[in-house]
Amino acid sequence: MTPALRLDADDPTPPYEQLRRQFVDLIGSGVLPPGERLPPLRQLAGDLGLAVGTVARTYRELEAAGLVRSRRGGGTRVTRDVPPPEAGPALDRHATAYARQARLLGADLEAAVTALRRSWPAG
Amino acid sequence: MTPALRLDADDPTPPYEQLRRQFVDLIGSGVLPPGERLPPLRQLAGDLGLAVGTVARTYRELEAAGLVRSRRGGGTRVTRDVPPPEAGPALDRHATAYARQARLLGADLEAAVTALRRSWPAG
DNA sequence: CTCCTTGTGTCAACCGATTGATACAAGGTC
DNA sequence: GACCTTGTATCAATCGGTTGACACAAGGAG
User: Fold this and answer.
1) B68 and B25 in one domain?
2) Based on C-alpha coordinates, what's the Rg of chain A?
3) What is the pLDDT of residue A76?
4) Whether A38 and A72 share a structural domain
5) Would you call A99 and B121 a contact, using CB atoms and an 8 Å cutoff?
6) What CATH number is attached to the domain comprising A74?
7) Which of A34, A50, A59, B19, by CA, is between 20 and 30 Å from A14?
8) Where does the HTH gntR-type domain lie (chains A, B) (predicted)?
9) Alpha carbon distance A104, B32 (integer Å)
10) Is residue B6 part of a domain?
11) Is residue A85 part of a domain?
12) How many CA atoms lie within 13 A of B79 on its CB side?
């Protein structure tokens, strides 16, 4: 099972790049461990409403970065060796980004925490 | 004196958006205080190697967000008041985005909250 | 008022990203 | 071997961002 990947339509960043960054996070943090298989091109493209070529570009760039290995018929899998430039700090990076935005909006820490708890999906 | 603004040529994110995000950071963090003047369009465009229209778009979006006020002949300055009406919904938007990233990384709510508290600037 | 500054608007042109379709190549399964 | 899956490659077409140039509008300073 692959985590829910999503695209922000309001973000001018091209979809192939949004996708790439999410995979970098997932691989770097170990959510997608070495050997884990990424979704087939057509399946992921269908789920996200993208063209096959767009997802293919994401996979191509991930492979160029050495994070992934693609084989025809065999799918795309996370590389065995782990080049971790930002493995652990992934969550902290996003936390910092959220904190910055919250402060920009005039919120204090507790307001930010409350908003976070409110936004957390049930489960 | 305006902080060093830089563009990452390797980042597929359009320049006007890279610029916009940097100003959001600078304003939100107080580096650019209320009333502070942003560089003139032509000057900033010249320094960054951009067309005037590209920088103009950044300023236009900042103004639409209420962070900045542009006047012909008078330049563009940081707004006196922090945008209060959009604060609530905007905070929720960022909280949701952070929550999603955190869950993507396999973190639970408490881990996300801890990371947030850790990332919150002192003061 | 005059002149300079500065933001705004428009235009044609180029480039990169995306789409949707099609065809092809290579691994996996039977 | 045949067959399905999956990644790769190409194509024309569309869309958005960017450029460079130019004209215009409005505030500031003398």
Assistant:
1) yes
2) 16
3) 97
4) yes
5) yes
6) 1.10.10.10
7) A34
8) 13-81
9) 12
10) no
11) no
12) 18
Q: Is the pLDDT at B21 greater than 70, yes or no?
A: yes
Determine which of A5-19, A23-37, B72-86 has the lowest per-residue pLDDT on average. B72-86
Angle, helix B15-28 to helix A90-104, in steps of 10 degrees: 70
The confidence score (pLDDT) of residue B31 equals: 78
Q: What is the pLDDT of residues B33-66, one digit of tens each?
A: 999 999 999 999 999 999 999 999 999 999 999 9
B2 within some domain: no
For residue B96, what are the CA distances in angstroms to A11, A63, A106? 15, 30, 17
Q: What digits encode the pLDDT tens for the residues A48-75?
A: 999 999 999 999 999 999 999 999 999 9
Nearest to B104 among A3, A17, A106 (CB): A3
Interval B77-99 mean pLDDT: 75
- Total domains present in chain B: 2
Residues A26, A72 share a domain: yes
Nearest residue, CB atoms, B12 vs list A8, A14, A107: A14
- Could you tell me which residues are beta bridge partners of residue B78? B68
Average pLDDT over residues A36-55: 97
Claim to verify: residue A96 and residue A41 sit in the same structural domain: no
Q: CA-CA distances (angstroms) from residue A12 to A45, B6, B14, B17, B18?
A: 19, 18, 7, 7, 10
What average pLDDT does range A14-37 have in this prediction?
A: 91
Q: Give the residue numbers spanning the domain of B97.
A: 87-119
Whether B112 sits inside 8 A of A106 (CB atoms) is: no
Length of chain B: 123
